[in-house]
Design goal:
This protein is α+β, with helices and mostly antiparallel strands and about 220 residues long. It folds into 2 domains: about 120 residues, Homing Intron 3 (I-Ppo) Encoded Endonuclease, Chain A (Alpha-Beta Complex), CATH 3.90.75; about 55 residues, GCC-box Binding Domain (2-Layer Sandwich). It contains 7 helices and 10 strands. The strands form 4 sheets. Strands 3-4-5 form a 3-stranded antiparallel β-sheet. α2 packs antiparallel against α3. The two termini are about 30 Å apart.
Length: about 220
């Protein structure tokens, strides 16, 4: 197993991503500029980035509770000081979404901006997997690859251990791991605990977050 992991490390030892992530507002702006996009689409991107610079005027953020509140009333139905946003999404993928200046902005992006004075250049990961928990200690800036190493266990998993399943064809427990878009075979084992151990070792070697594979 160690040989497999060492080989994978040598293949995926890529330098940390520099500059804005492709799916961040600034990343999309730079991509648009490089590809010559113009018209309505670039106007929308410019608006999305420009919107961030008004955040301190409109919102306040409590890093201990994770609540983003309105500093000013945006409408007659919303009072100053009210918590901003409504839950949006499905299942465990829910986030606070705020209607703002004709569009929408995620509360954790507001929290990030108010905490650090800039837009995230990568993704904002919720460490405990709860997208509604915007406490500052639960937010971290992470590349997409790093974010994928802190995921909830797949709902189709039947072993109770991420990356481990019983291979009926060979009658043994199979252990695998996915990293940087590649699926790595770690081996077949007679005992489930051995397969689990191989998986955990691979997670440590490949830099997975300790919360990866959580069930809730």
């Amino acid at each position: 197993m160690s040989a497999i992991i060492e080989m994978e490390q040598s293949q995926t030892a890529i330098a940390p991503q520099q500059g804005p992530a492709a799916n961040s507002p600034m990343g999309m702006m730079l991509s648009a500029a490089r590809t010559g996009i113009s018209g309505k689409r670039i106007d929308q991107l410019i608006s999305r980035v420009a919107k961030s610079f008004d955040l301190a005027e409109w919102f306040s953020y409590d890093p201990d509770t994770g609540i983003v509140s309105w500093k000013k009333s945006p409408s007659t139905s919303i009072k100053q000081g009210r918590a901003a946003g409504t839950p949006c999404g499905k299942g465990s993928k829910k986030y606070w979404n705020i209607k703002f200046r004709g569009g929408y902005i995620l509360a954790h992006h507001v929290a990030f901006f108010l905490s650090f004075g800039r837009l995230p250049t990568a993704e904002v990961d919720h460490i405990d997997g709860d997208g509604l928990n915007n406490r500052l200690k639960n937010l971290r800036e992470a590349t997409h690859a790093s974010n994928m190493k802190n995921m909830k266990m797949n709902s189709r998993n039947t072993s109770g251990i991420a990356g481990v399943h019983f291979n009926k064809k060979v009658g043994r427990w199979e252990s695998t791991i996915c990293a940087n878009g590649k699926r790595i075979f770690l081996g077949n084992f007679n005992d489930k605990s051995e397969a689990a151990s191989a998986r955990k070792q691979a997670e440590r070697t490949l830099g997975f977050h300790k919360n990866h594979g959580r069930t809730a």
